[in-house]
Design a protein that fits this description.
Layout lengths: L3 H30 L3 H27 L19 H28 L3 H31 L3 H29 L1
Amino acid sequence: MLTKKMEAALNKQIELEAYASFLYLSMASWLDIQGMNGSAQFMHRQSVEERDHMLRIFHYISDVDGHPLTPSVKQVPLKFTSPQELFEMVYEHEKKVTASINKIVDLSYKENDYATLNFLQWYVAEQMEEEALMRTILDRIKLIGNGPQSLYYIDKEMEKINQAEASAAAAEADAEA
């Protein structure tokens, strides 16, 4: 059974994950308009992943007899100045999500809520991966540059990441089967 404090913290995390899902969807739209299909596809996948993260918490709260709340989400930005600015925003948001998860982990210790602590370990590992991926993308953008011709190469790098992610997902599905 969740304490009210823990339930509120997890519901706040649901809101943060929902915001990320909509933010990344908006980014995908902008990238698509810019003709950066590989980058748009990447952000579409990230949007779905964030929604999955939100639902995972939503179902957990229900499973432990809490009351998950459907969040209202403030309007996300609709336009961006460059792919570099966009991915810097993603990286900053992922760091914000990591800090929030860490606060909930800390709360789970204080509340002696070991079930939630165990549940959150997946998020701790996931956030490490997300931040590392965004740093890698930003490093590549900085190497390639941000000029008009560079955008083509940035998009090609994103297509490589998409292919690697698809291969990893397929291998994971095969292992589970």
